Amino acid sequence: MTPFDFEPTDAQRQLRDTARKLATELLAPQAERLDREGGFPRENLLRLAQHGLLGVNVPRALGGLEAGAVAYSLMMTEIARACASTTVAVGVSNMVAEVICRFGTPEQQRAHVPKLCDGSHVVGAFALSESGAGSDPAGMRTRARKTDRGWVLDGSKMWISSGTDAGLFVVWARTGDAPGARGISAFLVPGDTPGLVRGKPEHKMGLRGSTTTPLEFHDCEIGPEALLDAEGRGFRIAMMALDGGRIGIGSQALGIGLGALDAFVGWVREGTGPRAASQDVQWALADSATALGAARLLTLRAAWLKEKGELFTHAASMAKLQASEAAVRVCGRLVEAMGPAALRTGNAVERCLRDVRVTMIYEGTSEVQRIVIGRDIARRFEGART
Ligand SMILES: Cc1cc2nc3c(=O)[nH]c(=O)nc-3n(C[C@H](O)[C@H](O)[C@H](O)COP(=O)(O)OP(=O)(O)OC[C@H]3O[C@@H](n4cnc5c(N)ncnc54)[C@H](O)[C@@H]3O)c2cc1C
What we know:
The chain has 386 residues and is α+β, with helices and mostly antiparallel strands. Helices cover 53% and strands 13% of the residues. The longest helix is centred in the middle third of the chain and has 37 residues, at 234-270.
């Protein structure tokens, strides 16, 4: 894709169509039940893995599709359009695979990435946040102590997506005495490591088919091969991973907004509410489609910059900020236009309204995105003046 070419390439279209087919035939029919009953969609994730969807931007040599960041964004939007919960595990697992490809040794890559891509690890999880250290992860307290056999982890994490089922965790912990971001390292921790305790999943307002759990580490011993990149380099790894992750969340939010719009159009077509030609319906459609259209452009632009190997931190934050806030507004607007019919349990617009809110929170809240974007723009102004 070039800056002015809005046509996906053949490979991007092919992956989008595969994701759309799986979303429509496999995920959409189960989304309402998954939301009602909660749990973790393990079988569905294994089906997605069979089609390569857990390693979209991962080299073929390591079991991935090597389809690029734009294809990844298109895939995430299609999956979220049918089932937002499923995209959480898909997005985080792809992010973990990409992190290991980028920062892992060849041994670490061979040990874990093919297992993430083919579902042998079920999925990967990203264990950064702690109580009181979410927006500011540099304030984390989990520690890793060096021993002659490797490392020992002690501490706890909060809000870890797929914490119930993940076969591999990237865990961030404080090593050494350097304060703040400088004293943090990242580790690859298999899910069956003794001393890693998975807590009970949170009861959440949305994304009820994605488990979110606390984790505890009690004298959790890991070998020297668990350290990702060098000691003290973990914070940088987390920030770079989150840059890419934010494209995923922007794509997810866009998909949830589109899913709500699909359900709204379906309701109008049923003919029990206002007529399609009424101004109420038309304005709701126009405002929603326009807001999501802008979100789509920013999200694909961020993905495109990433794919070209250019700086994309600021673009990814803009995409996440715009897409999540637009999708939250759209879901609210469509509920308003539908009236009480939208609030019936089991209605897809109601589910989207509950699912979408967290896209403004995880992988950096909207306020954090504003800080990233504002700081970057201010820095450029400074650069231009000096
Ligand atoms: C469903 C769900 C899944 C999650 N999955 C994961 C996961 O897989 N892995 C993981 O590591 N984490 C995960 N998280 C954690 C998530 O990333 C954090 O909740 C998020 O970063 C916010 O951090 P916090 O909860 O500590 O809130 P806080 O940082 O306490 O934020 C509270 C409020 O204060 C605002 N605020 C904070 N600092 C500033 C500031 N400097 N300027 C202006 N406003 C500010 C925030 O924007 C927010 O509105 C998940 C969270 C949820 C809800």
